[in-house]
Prior knowledge:
- By secondary structure, the protein is an alpha+beta fold.
- It contains 4 helices and 13 strands.
- It has a domain at 83-199: Helix Hairpins (Orthogonal Bundle).
- The radius of gyration is 45 Å and the shape is rod-shaped.
- The relative contact order is 0.18.
Amino acid sequence: MKLNRDKKNFKVYIPLIVVVLIVFSGVWYWYDQYKKFITTDDAHVDADYVAISSKILGRISHLYSNEGDSISKGKLIAELDSNDLLAQKYQFIAMKGQAVANQLQADAKYKYDIENIKVLEINVAKTQDDFDRAKNQFNSDVITKEQYEHIKKTYETAQAQLNSAKILLNVSKSQVNSASAAVDYAESQIGVIVTQLRNTKLYAPMKGVVAKRWLLNGDIVQPGQSLFTIINNQKLWVVIYLEETKLSEIHIGQKVLFTIDALPNKEFSGKVFSIGSNTASLFSLIPPNNASGNFTKVTQRVPIKVSIDADEKNRRIEKNKILTGMSVVAKIVKD
């Protein structure tokens, strides 16, 4: 009877013993994990992003890529309407043609005026000699006063013609300068329009995947406005936001194990390759302002970048299944 009673009492304690063992195992597991790892789920997959934006104002005529498309570096991905720019280009080409014709005419007139002045200067020199000789002859009563006045008048007329020609030469020179400036202006405007025409075509600056398309065909795009956002999916990493109190245990090259929520059965490994130079909140949309008088101390987090070890199997997984922004559970191995 006593033996049966002891067996019954032992059976009563079996569930309690099992619970104690489970609790002890759990505590031991978490203690072991705490000693070996710094664990956090404040992490996600990240990559380089490039925003493709327009340099000019224009209407979108063609979009050659959609979200999710893989693109190569240098691929044409968007085009703006160029009809207005082409019309302006032809207008300035015609303006340049007229300006060149005016310049040739002004140059010819300027050269003619220079040669004419040379002839008039010779004539002035000759008539001045005649006038000087006539003056002496008149004073010596060799010629009459009428002859003297005629020679004097001829000299004064030649001098006046030379002065008028010099004025016309200055006018011709200003016309040459104006015509040349008109040609330069037309050429500069053509150059500006050619550059703008070149900017109507947008090319991918790197190989990657279109993560976001912001506009549609027919939309008006402003200078600097993004049409696409491209990510470099060939080089992914994990960003961990770690409490500042644990930062002293982190260093470049430290090993990290992590799982991605979308691939829970696959454990990845990597190494710390960047430790942020400031906390994540410093450049947030609303940065902390402790001068307001309502200070509440909050543990800040520092961004840490971790590489994804790239063996052949991982490359296939990265290419097909890992996306930027996916949640990550990371375990930083303590040294």
